[in-house]
């Protein structure tokens, strides 16, 4: 059914409706082989009508739309053209391009439905559509050096009205400021981000720093974690002491007996800080927190040491298998292919071939026939023109009432499911591939001599050849849950204005439950893929074995998970912050050694934010590999403990540091 739906979408789809704009007659602008071949831009007769909120609902601006070769480059009105064209024919030659084809009577008095009565300068074509030339001069928004103009009715309108109308037109959610607005007399032209801002250098620095950080974790993981733990203990202790000082100081004041319940709820938080009871509550809370941290540290110290040892071992594993750090590039390319396929397939049903649908576009409000379908051939003879004078029957979209058109929404849901399936399968393939490579490192008794050659490529080949079905099954389960969550979000959006409290409460509970279910499935799938990479069993068996293995070591799982998440988050923030700080110093000429290479910038925030965000994403890509490495080594470590006893027949494969922590050793005989 899904394959048939996608085949039907590709057969019935018409990509021209995405590439070319469509005028009021349903003809494509700029399409070769038609009368509009040299008219590639869509022009709105009266763009002020696009300011109506109904535009966003009906997806159609209620004014005549015409294909033109170029947009207007100056203000003009129909009455001015009639006055000047008798002495200068060029006025009419310029103006006639903004009239309907076939109109050749500049002396006609009332041409509001045939010609645009007041074209506005629109030298910039955004998405092949004419928009006013907005320029900010000295803080004032202007169009062609004007801040006001007269509309078709002779009323004075501001440039802000034009801006609002431009924002509401279909497919115009883009910046309306043209390049000319950037050429201000008080500053040089801005330069391209990627070419002149040296952004690529900042991203390269982030890549190198991420690599160095991961490789150095084998030496710094223990220091960083213990330093942060004791720093938190010291900060909480200082907080307790400070709260005690404030409590003693306020206790001696006359108003010391006033309690929080006496003053009730106050919007000004500083009022509570004047009460001794507030600081007593703070002191007790911090004391309990301090006690919990110390007790957890005492009883879980060995688990923390194991987590640190596994983090160090993960750094060593990546050092031996450096190719794993660049596997996210493969994942990115596969995700790009999946997203491209979904986007193209999603567009085709909406551009399906069918009959041209025309709708009534009234010139006055409160028309009873507004947005109803009409026939352009019989429209002028119908009663609509009498009831709603000035109304037009204009093209709206292509559609129909065939079974295919009725089930487009179902096809889109199927397409969305397949998209989620492909994305999750790509991620699952990456996780299984990396797990297989790192598992081969762990189970090598003599490292690195026993590590097989090309472990990453071998693991990828095994995953594709033997485990495709298991990965697809696990991905499908997750995709179905994600699709249900999307449908629930859609229903929640539709029911926002509903008065049924029980329905909204039930929907909220369902959203919460499926969010938790998605998190659990992601966690279980990740560990199931690791077990698949280790033993090669099917998905259900691997998921069951991984679940019971983790449940038998739930405390170790919790400690390692939180320690790893914390250190990786710290690394991401550290790398993004340090590279961002260097970029700030670079763009603000604060580094004397390389001042000559720094371009002169009017605004450095765009490249600075680009470098910082790009650095965080690069660090996230590197650290995702590291997190997968630690998780794989952890499961291998648990299996090693359960299945081996240190004898010559079943030696431990864990590192020497882990054996020391657990008081384990391998016996030669």
Automatic annotation (TrEMBL):
A cellular component term, taken from the record's GO annotations: plasma membrane
Report which superkingdom the organism of origin falls in: Eukaryota
Family matches, as InterPro entries: Choline_transptr-like
Q: What parts of the sequence cross the membrane?
A: 199-216, 223-241, 279-300, 320-344, 418-445, 466-488, 500-517, 566-589, 601-619
- How would you describe this protein's topology in the membrane? Multi-pass membrane protein
Instruction: Tell me the PANTHER family matching this sequence.
Output: CHOLINE TRANSPORTER-LIKE (SLC FAMILY 44), CHOLINE TRANSPORTER-LIKE PROTEIN 5
Name the gene for this chain.
SLC44A5
UniProt name for this protein:
Choline transporter-like protein
Keyword Protein transport included in the entry's annotation: no
Q: Which reaction does it catalyse?
A: choline(out) + n H(+)(in) = choline(in) + n H(+)(out)
Species name for this entry? Scleropages formosus
Q: What is the annotated localization of this protein?
A: Cell membrane
State the similarity comment. Answer: Belongs to the CTL (choline transporter-like) family.
Q: Report keywords, A-Z.
A: Antiport, Cell membrane, Glycoprotein, Membrane, Transmembrane, Transmembrane helix, Transport
> Its biological function?
Choline/H+ antiporter.
A GO molecular-function descriptor: antiporter activity
